[in-house]
TrEMBL record:
Name of the molecule in the record: DNA-binding transcriptional regulator NtrC
Keywords: Activator, ATP-binding, Cytoplasm, DNA-binding, Nitrogen fixation, Nucleotide-binding, Phosphoprotein, Repressor, Transcription, Transcription regulation, Two-component regulatory system
Transmembrane segments: none
One annotated GO biological process: regulation of DNA-templated transcription
Any one annotated GO CC term: cytoplasm
Keyword Aminoacyl-tRNA synthetase: no
Pfam families xref list: AAA_lid_14 (PF25601), HTH_8 (PF02954), Response_reg (PF00072), Sigma54_activat (PF00158)
Response regulatory domain mapped to chain residues: 5-122
Modified residues (4-aspartylphosphate): D57
Organism annotation: Geobacter metallireducens
Coarse class of the protein's main subcellular location: cytoplasm
Subcellular localization: Cytoplasm
Amino acid sequence: MMKARILICDDEEGIRRYLQKMFLAKEYDVETFADGTSLLARLEGGTDGDADILLQDVRMPDMDGIEVLQRVKRLRPTLPVVVMTAFGTIDAAVEAIKLGAYDYVTKPFPKEKILGLLENALQLDLLMKENRVLKEELSRPDTPDNIIFTSEKFRKVYELTVQVAASDANILVLGESGTGKELIAGAVHYNSTRRGKRFLSINCAALSDTLLESQLFGHVRGAFTGAITTQKGLLEEADGGTLFLDEIGDVSAAVQAKLLRVIQEREFIPVGATKARSVDIRFVAATNKDLAKEVEAGRFREDLYYRLNVITIALPPLRERREDIEPLASHFLAKYARRIRKDIRGFTPEALQSLECYRWPGNVRELENVIERAAILTRGDLVTPDVLPIRPRDDVSPRRPDNLLVSLEEMEREHIERVLRQTGFHKSRSAEILGISRKTLDRKIAEYALAMPGQAGGAAMEN
């Protein structure tokens, strides 16, 4: 973890040395300043290593401590400042707190008191930084700044996305799990005339029919056991905006029929209600299934399929756009290093080669999970191959040569089996990593006849 950097500003050399020795013993990075002028020059200059906290005397000869504090807060509004004061200048310390100082400590101060105060201030600063980062990530729209790509193949996908966003047609996004279907759906919304309204999403495969219907259509009080209040559904919440229906291929026939009515009639009836409500929504649906085959097999309504599939956007898997692996990995590394306060500059050439040579059956979602793990385990300033849970044996099966083409089904089977093994065959955790519901994972385990520990004749182990 990155060491906290502490700035100390006090005109008394003895105080500076005492605090510096104390903080260095705790393995903090420390910089000392004898006056406010040199401190402000440091902050204005933006020299290497940003500050995490400032300990500042309230009385200094060259510049009043209150004036220094005011200028510090203009330069670094979020920098925590602890004011040091003599007994006779407590009023000035109180004034400093009014101006934004975190707290004050009276000289002479015990070692335990100043360390405790410092650790509390740093912990609060860490929480505030994490909160700011999360708010920025949540508020960032899905624009080219947030959808990372350099490959020609994905550039064409994004250009198509922007082009069709200008229309109001429903869109079907196709692609393997983890290819970024929700990001593309968000890009459709934020590049459309509906951008001022809400963009909402729901994973249809993760919910039972009853819960999915309630989430989509809402319900009135008393509609079913436990419905003690009336609740708006996503259709009403997304009115005027865009609703993203992820894993639409897993929706039951009953819910398919109700969705078809919404799209055709532009109205819906909440669960338990009798009166229809008008709604204006653009639908973006996504699936990793071949819906045309699902229609042929009678598992998906043909009329709903054509209502949703006005425009199709097909996302390429990550293995078909390897130019995007490095920029994506760098983006995720910066994101998670910032969250856990680590100073990680990038990847060793060997680590980068491992990333680029891996097949990524779980696509961008798997890459993000791998980089998050690497950020946590990395001890230096570069990610090395030993913290990457990918190896040539994971990528290439010894049962076939490198140049032999394999089916998507075989790749999916291998990937699911590998994730299950890595999680100790914990199905809920595996489903989360794979980005699918527990129900879908159970179906895949049965479909591919995957052996589970302790099972007899293919029965799935519960966990």
